[in-house]
Amino acid sequence: MPATAIPRTLPTEEDIALARESGRTLSAVLQSHADIRQLDFHDDTGAVCAVRLPTSALRLLLDVLTEIGQGNAVSILPIHAELTTQEVADVLNVSRPFLVQLLEKGDIPFHKVGTHRRVRYQDVIAYKTRIDAQRHQALDELAAQAQELGMGY
Hints:
Elements: H1 13-29, E1 36-42, E2 48-54, H2 55-69, E3 82-83, H3 85-92, H4 96-105, E4 111-113, E5 116-120, H5 121-148
Helix pairs in contact: 1-2, 3-4
């Protein structure tokens, strides 16, 4: 799967259970404060291959295992990645035509490569963060109004 591919399938029950178990073990390993860790992998013949990894990579792996353990599909994208409009629509869980409207209104920056629009991943996340904050603020205001009106919630 390319670095910018967004998974289309959810993990299996077996994957979820294994991710939870592995995540617990990895979390315990990360309790020490070493900058570099070594993992030993055993192949089907019993041979051991030692792999040294930076702690930051193991923390990312723990995040991935946590998400899979919750039944979520996971994709890793470099911050500087450029996404197609369909990939952005999938990340934001909106239709591609709706996303194109957002782009054309200037809500999310983009540029064109030939006739195709490309959006930087960090711009997508900035938009998502901004819109989520607006939604939370609106919900807080509605909850406050409901309290003032004695609506019981």
